[in-house]
Amino acid sequence: MNPNRKPIIAGNWKMYKTAAEAVALVNALKAEVAGIETVETVVCPPFTALAVVQPALAGSNVQLAAQNVHWEKEGAFTGEVSAPMLKELGVRYAVIGHSERRQFFGETDAGVNKRAKAALANGLRPIVCVGETLKEREANRTEQVIKTQITGGLAGLSKNEMLETVIAYEPVWAIGTGKTASPQQAQDVHAFIRKLIASLFDADTGARVRIQYGGSVKPDNAKELLGQPDIDGALVGGASLKADGFAAIVKAGVQA
């Protein structure tokens, strides 16, 4: 990790935790990570828990994120949640384009782009997810896939908007499978993304944008992954559902 980029460790709870369970988890987590200022800690509860988690986090060093956001401010979009609604709840980040959203709900790079712009326009920071499938990796198409997702998903952003955006590289074949990209595999793609951002914006933006790794990150592999020069944090799935395990990953970020 680069000392000029503050590492960001975000826990994506997916469709787990009732409101009561969510409050219990953040109360335990707050105690575990209290006083850690060199790493940014973020939790991403389901929509139903955001309103109760926000006051539970008050005064702590843990930020709140949503797992998705719609691109319109309001309207006839049954089941969707807008950026102004999230902002009112004290949400700071929004995960956009997670591979599960792409796989199960048909989300596209164009939709990611609209969501990212809506988030930024309403003072939310997007965490934009990109990553290749196993089939794409085996066909040596990783860089091509990532380039398409990045250029489509971030089209039209200003430099300042890009600097407010976090990219999460999540190889689809490593999400929830127990498989993890090796630290070198992950580093190679992160370096590619950084060069790509520099070419799309400028060298300064490429050097400053934060890029997380996601895909079966656990306490026992976090330190080595986070020690890579272009990996600036982690988007953590299953391991974020227990306070001690997630806190151990945050602490690995401090050590790295």
Defining traits:
TIM Barrel, single chain, 12 helices, 46% helix, 256 residues, 15% strand, alpha/beta, globular, eight-stranded parallel barrel
Write the layout of secondary structure elements.
Blueprint: E1 8-12, H1 19-33, E2 40-44, H2 47-57, E3 62-66, H3 83-88, E4 93-96, H4 99-105, H5 109-121, E5 125-130, H6 134-138, H7 142-153, H8 159-163, E6 166-169, H9 183-200, H10 203-208, E7 210-214, H11 219-226, E8 233-236, H12 243-255
Parallel strand pairs: 1-2, 1-8, 2-3, 3-4, 4-5, 5-6, 6-7, 7-8
Helix pairs in contact: 1-2, 1-12, 5-7, 7-9, 11-12
Structure report:
This protein has 256 residues and is α/β, with parallel strands linked by helices. It has a single domain, classed as Alpha-Beta Barrel (TIM Barrel), CATH 3.20.20. It is 46% helix and 15% strand. The chain has twelve helices and eight strands. It has helices at 19-33, 47-57, 83-88, 99-105, 109-121, 134-138, 142-153, 159-163, 183-200, 203-208, 219-226, 243-255; strands at 8-12, 40-44, 62-66, 93-96, 125-130, 166-169, 210-214, 233-236. Strands 1-2-3-4-5-6-7-8 form an eight-stranded parallel β-barrel, surrounded by seven helices. Strand 7, helix 11 (219-226) and strand 8 (233-236) form a beta-alpha-beta unit. Helix 1 runs parallel beside helix 2 (47-57), helix 7 (142-153) packs across helix 9 and helix 11 runs parallel beside helix 12 (243-255). The radius of gyration is 17 Å and the shape is globular. The protein starts with 7 loop residues before the first strand and ends with a helix. The relative contact order is 0.17. The model has no long low-confidence stretch (mean pLDDT 96).
